[in-house]
Amino acid sequence: MTAIDPRRSVWITGVGLATPLGHDMATLERNLLEGRSGAMAVTSFSTIDYPSRIAAVVETIPCPPSQAPERFVHLPRIEQAALWSIESALRDSGWWDRRHDIRVGLVLGLGAEWMELWEVDRLAGGDRVVDPSRDERSTLDRVREALELNGPSLTLSAACAASNFAFEIGRNWIRRGTADVCVVGGCEMAVTPVGLATFGNLRALSRRNDDPARASRPFDKRRDGFVLGEGGVFCVLEASSVARRRAVNVYAEVAGFGASSDAHHHVIPSPDPAPASRAVRQALFDARVEPHEVDHINAHATSTPVGDAAEAAVLRLVFGETLDAIPTTSTKSMTGHLLTAAGAIEALACVTAMRRRAIPPTINLDEPDVDLLLVAHEAQPRRVSTVVSNSFGFGGANSCLVLRSV
Amino acid sequence: MIPPQTPTTIAPLAAEIEASGLIRLARPEIAAFRRRPDPLPEPWSARRPSTLRNSDEQTVAAVAAVRQILENMGNPDPSRFEGWGVVAASRFLGRSNLVLALDRFKVEGPWGVSPHLIPHFALHAQAGALSLILGGHGPNLGAGGGLFAGTDGVLTALSWLDSGLVPGVWLILTNWDPEYRPDLDGEPRESTHCEALALALAPSREGNGSPRLRVVESDEPVVPSPVTAATISAGLERRRGRDQTVAGNWSEMVGTDATGRFLVELASADPGLDGGAA
Question: Which residue of B131, B141, B152 is the best one to mutate when testing the A interface, meaning the one whose CB has the most A CBs within 10 A?
Fold first, then answer.
């Protein structure tokens, strides 16, 4: 394995999350390794006529210490999730109390911000959607101001691949000094009346309504769509040289990134594995990792019939026979699909595998229909150092992140 | 504790503007472009026009801007742009469609909700559609989405070029002017045009006279002002006039981020100004 380059290596030194499987890392790790599903029947609104009536929801988002609870409870849920997760990550990294002394960047993966804000307001009888003057401040602006962050910031989306792109931009800002510390990740709260309906009518969601915990079943022969998830997940990135001096807890190195586009269809993955394989190869090259050096793959696999099979073909094209020795899992079987936050929660699943020396399982994998070495049902003890995490999205967006233990 | 780097010690993110294409379209013109059998000129795209059938009007205008930039560049061969990324910074994509969709949901319930909402009106949608139309395999990414989307788009594109992720970027900025204020039928309450600017961005090269686009951190915040298709285009126009009368280095702010601390500038090609991108 290639030695870490201290001039360019960027480390994850803090994490924060609001997810269906917990709002702190220890809880998330425990639930992932125990194979618990976050999916349940949706009860926050009537789902009588919905094709899919299940989701992996975040019921109550904790109020971060810096915010006033009486104000926090009235904020949009996207903002709540972002505030809690970002502040938690900065506190976890040890930067929170010193954030005014440095430039803290923020790269926010968020794909349906305005749709979700307009929907909540409209269904409550408001007219925000027809009044642009109420939209002058974005979630990014409000969060940055509330948390008093003073570095560069931006919102981005490559749909379900968004978080990986956030890692890449944050890593670049750290390397070149544009930010001293950068918070990166994703946030999406799409389990809304219209959100659940539009994904359902797209025929993207599982209709296994009578058995939510068994509905998300990536790579299983009887998979019938994904389980919509929601949440916010963020990581603090900083230069390894700085983290070493601070002697802080380090989760992983962001070692490599690659990205490509299918140029095939707005929604359907390309049947040609070549474009997506380019992203994976680019990430391996960037990390200076050979395929045989990869210890584990966290697949994008959402539990759709077409997508999972397409990803298996991509992995086979990249790794060849080496793939037969690389344990692969899809933690969406437990978390549901967090959309723009998916890549970030899966990065934490990779970190879990490294820290706990056990690979989280793909639950509900009763009858695999792809040729992969899958970790089914139960966590698999294994020393993990280098992990590949795929995230693919609508618009033909492909991304791959390589994380390495430190 | 690390010593914070002062803004002046860090080379600004910067890139060279190879070409630009600006479009300003009224809604009937957007409708006409949507029906074109050839969104881009040969040999660029064999895509059927149905690719844009459900797209937001800003996305259609974005494709028109790409067509314009290709014409301005003399319709270059697509192979020259292999691996180029697409960054699309739209503002309030889907607003007019959401007016109808949300009210229809209130009447008809979930079965009345279109499956096209996420694929065509979420932030990624414009970049995804452009990637499809261009037919390239470089990455595509939506940026911004709100009033200051332009700055997010510029930051993203310049970051990609700086890191070496891509050899070039198609950066597309779109917005309504004035901002689209729909009535309850989704129709605009006042006349408005969709502006779309396509920029071909490449890493800065010494000795090249093309103008630069860069992001500079200011020691003192200025009054925030959005970066739009029009502000960049107008700056480029002024630069063309200035070239005929003024020699030497120049720079001009074309907008900021929402805090007024990060300034987007057009600048001359002096490598000492931008530090050179990767």
Answer: B141
